[in-house]
Amino acid sequence: MPLRLDSTQPDFEARFTDLLGAKRESSQDVNDTVSAIIADVRHRGDEAVVELTNRFDRANVTAQTLRFTADEIASAAAQVPSNVRAALQTAHDRIRAHHQKQKPEDHVYTDALGVTLGSRWTAVDAVGIYVPGGLASYPSSVLMNAVPAHVAGVGRIAMVVPTPSGEINPAILAAAEIAGITEIYRIGGAQAVAALAYGTATIPRVDKVTGPGNAYVATAKRQVFGQVGIDMIAGPSEVLVIADGSANPAWVAADLIAQAEHGAGAQSILVTTDASLADAVETEVDRQLTLLPKGDMAREGWDELGAIITVASLDEAAGLANRIASEHVELALDDPQALLRAIRHAGAIFLGHHTPEAIGDYVGGSNHVLPTARSARFASGLGVLDFMKRTSILGCTPSSLSALAEPAVTIAGVEDLDGHGRSISIRLNH
Amino acid sequence: MPLRLDSTQPDFEARFTDLLGAKRESSQDVNDTVSAIIADVRHRGDEAVVELTNRFDRANVTAQTLRFTADEIASAAAQVPSNVRAALQTAHDRIRAHHQKQKPEDHVYTDALGVTLGSRWTAVDAVGIYVPGGLASYPSSVLMNAVPAHVAGVGRIAMVVPTPSGEINPAILAAAEIAGITEIYRIGGAQAVAALAYGTATIPRVDKVTGPGNAYVATAKRQVFGQVGIDMIAGPSEVLVIADGSANPAWVAADLIAQAEHGAGAQSILVTTDASLADAVETEVDRQLTLLPKGDMAREGWDELGAIITVASLDEAAGLANRIASEHVELALDDPQALLRAIRHAGAIFLGHHTPEAIGDYVGGSNHVLPTARSARFASGLGVLDFMKRTSILGCTPSSLSALAEPAVTIAGVEDLDGHGRSISIRLNH
């Protein structure tokens, strides 16, 4: 049974706060293990990567076979049925078209004093994409990481994917092929992150590492941050559906189940102004779970972490949504636009009854790598800007430097940085 | 004596690589100490913050006096000479005017299929700004953090600044007053970062923490990343001057010294096509260092970490600049525009002979919080976007959902997520 809350009950605030604070991830402390792995890879390079891969992934690689050959990629991709290839191609093309609209423009101008000011955007040179192997191995995630990097203009994209017992989902390699990725290594875990960040003889280092992974991967990303850029520390997926009486309970139930089937801490919450919808959705979830092959896992997550909250108004729903700051927010309303402005913290917002979150996972065109665990309060989904950086441009003329010299030298003095002041005053009257 | 390199010498590549890898920061391992402090603040709140502050800062605060009163701020600010206040006001106004041009625009559109797609930007609700106390206590940094946050539309800005032995530079509080910051706590170190990230009875938690600090502050930021957003892990400052024969050796020398006077690992590098300029600059640095009150510290840094590199062409200089990926790059050339495009990795670029880096530290208008330690390969300087986040918008009509259903359901099948597929197919023919 999911949690049922009613915002008119006196204990609501306390119970809602508990829900917000619910621990959804087993926070394994793997800091020391990961530090040792990173140090080992920095010190011994390929030798360490090969040893660790063979041990953790029950594999049998050498430095010579760490990288997939072009033939291996092509033959794996060729195993993938043509309708799957076509679907991945459609996804790729739509993701690409949307992300092309995210490309930032340079902006350089001259102000009234004659000072040239501006921002110029350039791509990161080399990016490493981490793709999980095994259970949660998603070809769609290959596209969601690779396409914005390509659109940004990244020159080199290196992908790593662990192959437990030597196995890999061929659709992963098909997605890589469609995305134009040719540099793929059969490695994973902290050792893969370390290899990307510091480089080995076989794997040249990159400038930024993106992509989801388990606790070891997340910890390794946190530890190499600074040496390379990272995207975010991703947690379990989550959806918040805001619905009124116009919503179809079977559709809402299907969306809550789609999130819950991720397992491993995934969370589905319904907030509704309509108590009878709440009841109908709860019944529908139970019914639909019996129809689903992996229904047991989804039911476990729904029972443990799911919640249905009834509220007095849509404004109140928006207020709760901003406190939850969910990765995905569905507005299952006839008029979603009316509530859209009120939702300030969300990774992505899905409008109306015909936009199930899952369409955004694959072919909507927007990115499915989104901030989780309330980080939508401060973070954005993955996009083209994550693969670019902005350089400031500043240029003074002799006269604009003169005009700004006095306040600059004054502040330098207050900060006890006389050399700063001197570098300005030495240029005056020239 | 600074390092002298000549790109035509056979050992150049090896020596340049050594320069790139030179360790400039004593990487104290304070991980465990910081973890303990954060756990203590989470557990005991104000009590821990007060105890740690009194111990580490030799202070005598209580929970009631953690926050500066409006009177304390006003009277400290009133001690600041009027020319300093005017200079800070000029800096504020110019920083504000420039950052207003960084505000992103929402972009929502409907594609050919009828799918609504877009990006919407919103401000972070609450931000914590860390301002160092003691030696490197810079009022200009208050402005550089606070102004972009204000421009972004951040509703609440909380500032923390340690007051060792109870002392504070009044110009810090004057800058805060000019920037409109009224919530200021006299705390620092890892305990301040923990208080901002997790909140205490006196200090409500924020959503993001920005600003520079020592090893404890940097480590604390790394550890709370995820609970809150952070800006970057800042290292020692650095400048790279690219000059040809048109440069004035005395001016170039002054800029190299201005950087070196930061001490603590700051690095100044000159790359020039003109060997006689190289010699003249070296002589000038020696001469000017004798004129500077803090010349001894700057000389120490220049001798230990400074470098002068002669190259055969400006193209070659740009190539080295991209490998160094410096925080600041000065183009001391008659025609800086010609080289500008070739410099791809830099925090900020300063154009021509009349743009000393120091003008950008204070009143140029651009931000002086910039990526250090080669992180300009993947990171940008602080700006308005750091205080905002992007929400994706997706909306399907019945017909566009139908058009996209087949590829989406196909990919869901490959990913073994039948619930995802079902949430789409259940809506068809409705």
UniProtKB/TrEMBL annotation, chains A, B:
GO biological process, one term: L-histidine biosynthetic process
Residues reported to bind Zn(2+): Q259, H262, D361, H420
The organism's taxonomic lineage, starting at the top: Bacteria, Pseudomonadati, Pseudomonadota, Alphaproteobacteria, Hyphomicrobiales
Ligand binding (NAD(+)): Y130, Q191, N214
Family note: Belongs to the histidinol dehydrogenase family.
Keywords attached to this entry: Amino-acid biosynthesis, Histidine biosynthesis, Metal-binding, NAD, Oxidoreductase, Zinc
Name recorded for this polypeptide: Histidinol dehydrogenase
InterPro entries given in the database record: Ald_DH/histidinol_DH (IPR016161), Histidinol_DH_CS (IPR001692), Histidinol_DH_monofunct (IPR022695), Hstdl_DH (IPR012131)
Keyword Transferase: no
CDD domains found in the cross-reference section: Histidinol_dh
Organism (species): Devosia aurantiaca
EC number of the protein: 1.1.1.23
Active site: residue positions: E327 (proton acceptor), H328 (proton acceptor)
